[in-house]
Specification:
Strands 1-2-3-4 form a four-stranded mixed β-sheet, with helices on both faces. By secondary structure, the chain is of the alpha+beta class. The longest helix has 24 residues. It has a single domain, classed as Endonuclease, Chain A (3-Layer(aba) Sandwich).
Length: about 140
């Protein structure tokens, strides 16, 4: 199947996909802030520049899009029909980079949590509850 739009327009579309301050990221930040958590964003000194860090809990949170970061078993992690060799390699490198950055953070003493876009969209309050229970010494009674 051939792409329905020109290569230039496809390139322009793809260039508009943001790497930070995405809607899921903003939603999670809002939920955390509403519950009284204080955090930092995109810490430049940490491996992988986590989307959110909770310094008090020494926890780094990555908010991953299911398509780009290949959420296993998710219906949003589809494979494009064209240029499959390109996409397979691109996705492989992304997943590998995610694993390396997580290992680097853990070796520095950080707990690493991954929030998937589909889970956040499906039930934000449940996801927040699950996330908070994973924080060391965090109390949360909702």
């Amino acid at each position: 199947m051939t792409d329905r739009i020109t290569k230039e327009l496809r390139s322009w579309n793809m260039s508009r996909i943001r790497g930070k301050d995405t809607k899921p990221e903003i939603l999670l930040r809002s939920l955390l802030h509403r519950e009284g958590f204080r955090f930092r964003l995109h810490a430049p000194g940490l491996p992988g520049r986590p989307d959110i860090i909770l310094p008090k809990y020494r926890t780094a949170i990555f908010v991953h899009g299911c398509f780009w970061h290949r959420h296993e078993g998710c219906s949003n992690a589809t494979m494009p029909k064209t240029r499959t060799d390109f996409w397979t390699e691109k996705f492989r490198r992304t997943v590998e980079r995610d694993q390396v950055k997580q290992s680097e953070l853990e070796s520095l003493g950080w707990q690493v949590l991954t929030v998937w876009e589909c889970e956040l969209n499906a039930d934000p309050s449940r996801l927040l509850s699950v996330l908070v229970k994973q924080l060391p010494d965090a109390s949360y009674d909702k």
